[in-house]
């Protein structure tokens, strides 16, 4: 409410919400944080789940590609593990110090008179740590993350999986991995709700009360952008200058958002006018 009140006197723009991914969107891919995430996922699969080292690289790529996240894929193919344990292994050991405060982005976000919401597949703690390192904690009205999209069923196996037992290291598990590696078909639906699947977007819209037609969606993943576009969002592909069918705007860097988007430029200008008129309003009684 406070957020709405803050901007209630500002004329309406084409958009009333900005929806942001976090990783490789609010900070650049070349920060190297994502490489550490990949390294930790591989280590988790080998040491915690006992998956053969030679199978892991291919599995990682395919699970990510077909299920949205590697974790969602691992659950889909029958691995039962604690989400928090996986998150703390993969994210809890990241060198967050490589991310530096970004006062330029902070200033850009704070000067935009539009509500801003985070929409990430990552867990809450990771999102908070990244936003904290970037100095952007106060810039967002809300956060949609792993826990928001998966509030229960923490250890529930897929409904359509025949054997609900813990398959870690079992023969069935090995067979399932073999089958997964040999086939090109999606074998099971994952119980994990995540981008780029429509149910994740539907939930995010509902939870954050988002009208996709009036929302700009920033993400570095073209798959997420494609679903976002199909769901009615206006899309901005961050980290690329290449526009495709689903991409309304392509930005090399999130820092370019003001220059690249006419509608946002308009919003910035509106905000500057408001600031100017507020200054005048304050100064008038002094002069009088
Ligand atoms: Mg991302």
TrEMBL record:
Which InterPro entries does the UniProt record give?
A: HAD-like_sf, HAD-SF_hydro_IA, HAD_sf, Pyr-5-nucltdase
Q: What domain of life is recorded for the organism?
A: Eukaryota
Gene3D superfamilies named in the record: HAD superfamily/HAD-like (3.40.50.1000)
Q: Give the PANTHER family listed for this entry.
A: HALOACID DEHALOGENASE-LIKE HYDROLASE
Record-given protein name = Suppressor of disruption of TFIIS like
